[in-house]
Amino acid sequence: MRAPELSIVVPVFNERANIAPLVGLVADALPDVAWELIFVDDNSPDGTSEEIKVLAAKDPRVRGIRRVGRRGLSGASIEGMLSSSAPYVAVMDGDLQHDERVLVRMLALIRAPNVDLVIATREREGSHITGLSDKRSFVSDFGRFLSRLVIKNDVKDPMSGFFMIRREVVERAAPKLATEGFKILADILATTTESLQIRETPYVFRERQHGESKLDARVAFDYLGFLLHHLTGRLVPIRFFLFGLVGALGVVVHLAALRLALSSLPSLGFDGAQITATLIAMASNFILNNQLTYRDRRLHGLQFLVGFILFALSCSIGLVANVGIARVIYSDGQIWWLAGLAGAVTGSVFNYVTSGLFVWRKR
Asked: Distance between CA 112 and CA 266 in Å, rounded?
């Protein structure tokens, strides 16, 4: 068997029904190309990895990477691309919505010596992307609009999940790429400082046949963190921004709970209402961080309860640090807003570090 010229990386989660059809479609689309399919599965509970092993035993061009304790399309794509030894690497979804027949056209384009990246651009019907619902089309277009804040390359579809790239370009960019998030192409475009020679080729985005879309509020939350990460020159981790956004939502929850407690339970008094609101906001922050910020390390069962206790303790210590720093700065110059901001930032950084070390630590 010839060494592969093209590696096709397919990040998957709960896509068991699509694995065999995709292998057959790729084989039909690339009869004259030495290719390999690299499925990267985030430990799907539906048996996706088992299905990949069955097919790999029959076809040496198919192989799988099973990730345990890690989650996210970007991280899966990076691991898959770095596992390749082929000169060209494609990334496509495992839901059969990407047209595998376009791979031939993409490969022909990237074989040219002056081309680094080929993007499969989704065609449109009027103002909507073909194959997407009105809601998903709007979300994708809005994300593309926001991406202009951090992406300087003039490409039509920086939100596309279907592209082909030279492997050496990926290897140079990989140390700077974020493993969180879901738009790996946007991260490559925003991170790569070298001048990439890019080509785009249109295709019709298909409707999903099996499984469910992964696009939800968590994806939008990740994308906002991605934008903030790049707007700060990649100095601040995406996860810290997500942690901070949850904290900001916690302030809203706290104020709402305080107002409700004061109006509905006047017998508590202000101190009792404040304590109640603090506990509610703390619980809200913990649940949201567990679901969003640290969903790749999500706690369940007894670990969830223990995690909440540790989270409450770390936040309490963080509050002490917050007040201490604020008091020192205020006593020095009596600039209230600077003291408050410094205290809030100190408390947030402390809570973020202790949460990562003790609550949602890597297992």
From this structure: 74
- The residue that leads in pLDDT, 346 or 326, is 346
> Average pLDDT of 174-192?
82
What does DSSP say about strands 117-122 and 128-129: parallel, antiparallel, or unpaired?
Answer: unpaired
pLDDT higher than threshold 90 for residue 287: yes
Q: What is the value of pTM for the model shown?
A: 0.74
Residue type, 301: G
Q: What is the pLDDT of residues 203-238, one digit of tens each?
A: 887 776 555 555 555 667 777 777 777 777 777 788
Nearest C-alpha neighbor of 91 from the set 129, 119, 132, 121:
119
Kindly list the domain boundaries of the chain, sorted by start residue.
6-231, 238-359
Give me the pLDDT at residue 58, please.
95
Burial tier of 5 (Cβ tally within 10 Å: 0-12, 13-18, 19+):
middle
Q: What is the DSSP letter of 174?
A: G
Q: Which CATH architecture has domain 6-231?
A: Alpha-Beta Complex (3.90)
DSSP one-letter code for 13: S
Residue 309, number of CB atoms within 10 A of its CB: 11
Non-local (6+) Cβ contacts of 201 within 8 A are 102, 105, 106, 109, 118, 119, 120, 121
pLDDT in tens, 28-80: 999 999 999 999 999 899 899 999 999 999 999 999 999 987 777 888 999 99
**DSSP assignment letter at 206:** P
